[in-house]
Each structure stands twice: as structure tokens, then as C-alpha cells.
Amino acid sequence: MGLLSLLSVFLLLFYMGMRLLQTGLTFFMSSKIEAWLTKGTQNIFGSILIGMIATFFLQSSSVVLVITISFVTIGAISFRQTIGIILGANIGTTITGEILVFGDAFPFLIWLVIGVFMLLFPQKNIFYSGCILVGLSTIFVSLDGFESLATLVATNHLLLAGLSLTDTTPSIGIVIGTVISGIIQSSSATFGLTLSMMEQQLLSLSSAIAIILGSNIGTCITSLIATIGAKREAKLVALTHTAFNLITVVIAIPLLPLINLIALQLANESSMQLAHISVLFNLFSVLIVLPFIPLFEKYVAR
């Protein structure tokens, strides 16, 4: 019970940090992102770029997809314009993982104090800048908390047995990643938790990769929920996002040994390997799908 309680606390901290970071970035970028989504998505490559940028600044592919679904519902953009946004959002969400691996180099306790002090100012620019600092610092505090759970996990033989199965059966890791991301509604939080477990040598790189791939599927649940009662085009956005993530992960399952070998070549540190391969996988997934988009538009988006 102690493990579950502490895990819940640290997940809550991570989630709060993400929301504070998102709030601060949204204040500075939301009006521009809305303009980009409506005006900068006239071609597929522009849509992909907009999806990447929007996801980076809003720190959530789910939020970008929910906004996109809302725009489709009110007729501000067409379903065809959303295809690139979906692909770009998948790439953009991996940037958070790249940020998280630099936790040791980020003096988060100092920035946390500075950020809290900035929250006391009534000026909006200072206040929302404080939100960004407090949010980012809180995320790194929660990551330290995840690492502190390693001792409790190491004494739980049932959990260790379950984690060890992911080495021999990668599909179990994918299911774990899907379930965790689906429950906590954040692929970034799933990445942070997986990263901490891997750094404490409770997970191998191959198991961590499988879990991260699974989180790509679990994160689709938010957009599916957002389409309840929506019109056909809005539902197509969520279904396309889900289908894209599901198909690319299924294709990756037999290639996991190769993906693991590629990850080992990308960096010396395991945390960097996991972050880099996540970006690389989502990037290549988009490149694989691109040639089929005209066919998809012809038969599905008509």
C-alpha cells in the first residue's frame, strides 16, 4: 500500500507540474497556436510542423488533438487538415522526453524557489513565467520521487516478476505502457516513470522501449472520449489518431530487437537512448505513413 500511495503522490506532482507548465506556455502561445491551426494547415507538411510546434508548447498531444477536434466540430478546419496535425503531434510529444533526460543538469530546486516568488507578482508576464518555472521544477521533483520508489519495487517480488516478463515478451511491455498511459492520460508521465525505473536498473532498455511504444496507444483515449456526441469528421480525427498509433506499434513489434540495437548506437547513456529512439520511431512512423495519405484522403476523408 505504501508503494501505491507514494506512486500516486509523485504522479500527481508530475501531472500538476505538466499542467502548470502547460498553463504558462499557453498564456504566451495560445493565440498564435489557434491561428496556426486554422491558417497554417493548408498542406500536409505545414500541418505536420504546426502539430509538432503546438504539441511542444502545449506539452500535450492530447490537448492538441482535443483542440483540433473542437475546431473540426465547429467547422473551422476540415478533416483533411487534421491529418498532418495528428502526425506532427506524435513527433512533438517526444520532445518532452528529450527535456526530461536533462534533469541532472537542471537546478530545479533553485528555479522552483524563483518560480514560486514570481507567482506572487500580479503582472501576467511574470506570473505565467513563474508557472513555467514551477511546473518544470515540479516535474523534475516528481522524477526524483519516482527513482526513490526503486527500493520498494525491488522488494516486491510480484512486480519484479512482471517487469522481468517484458524482457522475454515485449508485447507485455506494450500492454503495460498502453494501460498506464490510458489510466493517467499522459504519455509524458509514462515516459518519466519508465525512465526512472530504467535508471534504477529495474527495466532493461528493450522493455522500456516496449512500454513507451505502448504509451502511444494509451494516449489516444483522451481524443476518443472528446468525440462522444461529436459529428462524423470529429470522430474521424480521433479514430485516425488511434489507427495511426496502433498500426505503427503493431508494425514495430517484430522489429523491436532492431530498434533496441539502433537505440544503443544513439547515445552512451540509457536515458538518452530511450529519449532519442522515441523521437526517431515517431519520425520514421510519419515518413512511412506519408505516401499513403493521398489514398487515405480519397477513400476515408471524402
Structural account:
With 302 residues, this protein is mainly α. 82% of the residues lie in helices and 0% in strands. It contains 17 helices and no strands. The chain has helices at residues 2-39, 44-58, 61-73, 79-92, 94-100, 108-118, 124-148, 150-154, 157-168, 170-184, 187-199, 205-218, 221-226, 232-252, 256-266, 270-289, 293-299. α9 packs across α10. The longest helix is centred in the N-terminal third of the chain and has 38 residues, at 2-39. The relative contact order is 0.13. The model has no long low-confidence stretch (mean pLDDT 78).
Low-pLDDT stretches are none
In round numbers, the mean pLDDT is 78
Distance between the termini: 52 Å
Helix percentage range? over 70%
Kindly estimate the percentage of residues that lie in beta strands according to DSSP.
Answer: under 5%
**Structural class, from secondary structure content?**
mainly alpha
For the report, how would you describe the main beta sheet?
none
Number of helices: 17
| Number of E-type strands | 0
Apparent shape: globular
What Rg do the Cα atoms give? 19 Å
Order of helices and strands: HHHHHHHHHHHHHHHHH
Helix-strand layout with pairing:
Layout: H1 2-39, H2 44-58, H3 61-73, H4 79-92, H5 94-100, H6 108-118, H7 124-148, H8 150-154, H9 157-168, H10 170-184, H11 187-199, H12 205-218, H13 221-226, H14 232-252, H15 256-266, H16 270-289, H17 293-299
Quick structural gist:
The chain is mainly alpha-helical and 302 residues long.
List key phrases describing it.
302 residues; mainly alpha; globular
